[in-house]
Amino acid sequence: MQTDFVELPLTGLEEPLSEVELAVQDNAHRFAAEVMRPLAATLDRMTPEEVIAPESPLWQVLQKAEGLGLSVLQMAELPPLERARLFAIATEELAWGDGGLAGALLVNHFPVMYSLLAGNLEMARYCEGKLGCWAITEPDHGSDTLHPDVEIGAPGKPYGQPNCSARIVGDKVVVNGQKSAWVSGAMTAQVCALFCHHVDEQGRTGPGVAVIVPLDLPGVTRGKPLDKIGFRAMNQGELYFDNVEVPLAHLLAGPETYHELAYRMLCEANPHVAVCAVGVARAALEHAVAYAHERRQGGQAIILHQHVRYRLFEMFRKVEAARALARRAITYNATAPRPAIIASTAAKVTATQTAFEVASEAMQLFGGNGVTRAYPLEKLLRDARASMIADGANEMLAIRGAGSLIDPSRLRQSATGGD
Ligand SMILES: Cc1cc2nc3c(=O)[nH]c(=O)nc-3n(C[C@H](O)[C@H](O)[C@H](O)COP(=O)(O)OP(=O)(O)OC[C@H]3O[C@@H](n4cnc5c(N)ncnc54)[C@H](O)[C@@H]3O)c2cc1C
């Protein structure tokens, strides 16, 4: 029989990968298949307290992940394009293994990444090898933290009191307050990249301070690990700061440089969530294609029913498009003179929306089996759903990203009648 079947590479319609890229992909894929998938299934059913307990399989994953050799500091020495591609390739494989564990591995590197973005090599070296987290959102401030100038707040309304702030006193940064229950990795982290408000000598608050806080300092406490629907292998929870004194050398940005660092941080973090979401979407697509071959209805494998083929095609098309945009945004931002926030938010919004749509359609394709815990779809759908809020709710990221389209010079022209 004439067949159009094509055996695609792991990541679909790919231009040929270099030898190094293939090796990194192969290594990450094996780790995802052999270590992450089996342990993620166990972690998903554990309570949040059990996930972080000393006997939890989480520690095996973290320990074995060291063998992947994904050192941010070492990768920083590579040319930007090469580094960006390798990161995207490895991250997609890890998230294909499990979105929650991929997130848990990623956030551990955030303090190193943000130190490098701030140009603080000393702090990057200090954080390398330590479990990390990144805390920006607060109980009363989530979406509005996406833009320190409250461009995202309600017009004309005051920002309200921050829940967490820092003063710079002599050679110390003194932190007080609390971060939200959503800080990924907060329960296990040793260091935190903290982004919060600054309080000046007159007691006025404004953006902002970014500082690396060692979480064993006196005055740091943690809340309870959060119970949630998706990414259950990635712990989350509050951090509390009571007059925590951090050496000034740990400062990544003060009021003058906060805006730029917060901007670059969003440009960096969002595409990582995007490639994670592509990995989740691809896992759902692969399960759906496999099931459509196995499941027989009406006397034949359901993949031979035309409408099933149409639905699989739609899923494939969306995964390819999301990956293409995620890779494009990551490489654009790595090589542009200044990264564009519209690139990173477009990638994140598209890929997480795709992951949700593809996981949902895959669940539908599994019929009744899709909603049982014996099959992997219900977990993929829960993970995909959480990704639409992680790192910024998608609709708010769209508003933030669209800021890149506003050309102030044209605004002035239209305000003066176009001359
Ligand atoms: C899986 C996951 C991982 C996360 N990891 C981290 C982390 O590592 N570190 C960290 O600090 N935070 C983290 N977060 C928090 C995340 O960034 C926030 O949940 C997100 O930014 C939304 O903030 P919020 O939950 O306070 O929602 P809110 O800001 O309260 O928003 C609630 C709703 O109101 C809408 N809304 C809000 N403001 C406006 C407006 N001005 N105009 C129109 N609509 C508006 C939003 O779109 C949303 O639908 C994580 C969250 C999740 C789910």
Give the helix/strand layout.
Layout lengths: L18 H26 L3 H5 L5 H8 L6 H4 L4 H18 L1 H19 L3 H7 L4 E4 L28 E6 L2 E7 L12 E9 L5 E10 L5 E3 L16 E9 L3 E3 L4 H37 L1 E2 L2 E2 L4 H30 L5 H25 L11 H11 L6 H8 L6 H8 L4
Parallel strand pairs: 1-4, 2-4
Antiparallel strand pairs: 2-3, 3-7, 4-5, 5-8, 6-7, 9-10
Helix pairs in contact: 1-3, 1-5, 5-6, 5-8, 5-9, 6-7, 6-8, 8-9, 8-10, 8-11, 9-10, 10-11, 10-12
The chain binds flavin-adenine dinucleotide.
Kindly describe this structure.
- With 419 residues, the chain is an alpha+beta fold.
- It folds into three domains: 19-131, Butyryl-Coa Dehydrogenase, subunit A, domain 1, CATH 1.10.540.10; 133-255, Butyryl-CoA Dehydrogenase, subunit A, domain 2 (Beta Barrel); 260-410, Butyryl-CoA Dehydrogenase, subunit A, domain 3.
- It has 13 helices and ten strands.
- The chain has helices at residues 19-44, 48-52, 58-65, 72-75, 80-97, 99-117, 121-127, 258-294, 306-335, 341-365, 377-387, 394-401, 408-415; strands spanning 132-135, 164-169, 172-178, 191-199, 205-214, 220-222, 239-247, 251-253, 296-297, 300-301.
- Helix 6 packs antiparallel against helix 7 (121-127) and helix 10 runs antiparallel to helix 11 (377-387).
- The longest helix is centred in the middle third of the chain and has 37 residues, at 258-294.
- It is globular.
- The mean pLDDT is 94.
- The chain binds flavin-adenine dinucleotide (FAD).
- Flavin-adenine dinucleotide (FAD) binds at residues 107, 134-137, 142-143, 152-154, 180, 182-184, 231, 386, 389-393, 395-396.
